[in-house]
Amino acid sequence: MKIALISSLYRCERHLPTYSAALFGFAKRISQAGVAVHYLPIVNDASQVEREQIDKLAHAINAAYLGRMTPQYVPRESLYASWNRGLDHSDAEGFSFWNADDIRAADAFLAGFRALQDGADLVDFDFTRVATFRRMGLFPRTERMLVPCLYDPARFSRRNGIGPFFMARRSLYEAVGPFDANFQIAGDTEWASRAFHISRFQRIPGSGGDFLVHGENLSNTGSDREDIEVNIIHMRRGNWRELRPVDPDAMRAAWQEWGRQGQLELPAEQVEYLWGAGAKTRWRRYRRERRQPAWLRRLRLALAARGWLHSEEWAAARRGIAQS
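The chain above was modelled as a monomer; its predicted structure follows.
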C-alpha cells in the first residue's frame, strides 16, 4: 500500500525551514520502514522563496530515494480544494495530510499505516497541542497538552471532529465523495461526518504529532467562521441539538449561498434560533462569555447550573440536551 501525504501551503515562508527539516527526517524514517509515500505539496500562489525551498526539498527527497515528491503550484484556492487536487494527482491507496505548521510523528504514522493494511479505512490519533505564551508579556512559556481523539463512531456530535493527522483509504474517499471546497476550516470534519456510518474506524493510542498554536491557525480557534461551518455540518444532518449561537447575518448568508445544498427549508424553530429576532443579542452574549478567562467561564456555568444567573453558554448546552 502506498500513502499520499498532501500539504496545502499558502504564505508559509516562516514555517518552511521547520517543515522541510521535519518532513525530510520523517521521510527517512518511513522509507527505512519500507513504506512508500507520495509527498504532494500543493503550493497556493507561491512566492519565489516558497517555490525555491519546496523545489529544493523535493530534489532532496527524490535524490535520496526517500519516497516521491511532486509539488503542484496553483493559484490560490481553498484548503479542501487543494486536498482534492492532491488526491487527483496520486494513485496511492491511502492518504493523509500535513500542514506546514505541524510536525507529524513517524511512529504514529506507521501504526496508522498498519491499521489501514489490516482493514480499517479511517484512522485517527490523539494529538499534542503546543502553544507558547508570554508571562507578564516578557517570558515565553511553552505548554504541551495531549488532546484525546475526539472522533467517536458511536455518536457524531459537535465535539466529534476529526484530528489533524487522520489517515484514510482511497476507497472510502471514493465512497464518500470529495471534500467540500466551500468550507474554509471544518471541511475535514464535514467529510468525516459523511463517512460516519460507512467507515471502519480505528483509533490509534498515542499522539499523531504536534499541532502548533501560533495565532494564525485556521482550526481550533473558536472563530465565528468555524462556528458557522460546524453549525452547517449539523444542519445538513438535522442534528438540531448541536447548533450554537453565531452571527445571524453571516449564518443565514452561508446557509443560503452554499450550505443548504438544495435541501428543504429549516424548521421554523431553528430559523428563529439562528437568525430570528433575538439571535443577534443571544450570539453577542454567547461570544462574550466564551471569551472570558477559563476560571470565570467555569464559575458562570456553575452558577447557571444552580439557576442563580443566566448564561447563554449554559442555555445552549441545555438546549442540546432537551433536543436529544
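The two ends are 41 Å apart (CA to CA).
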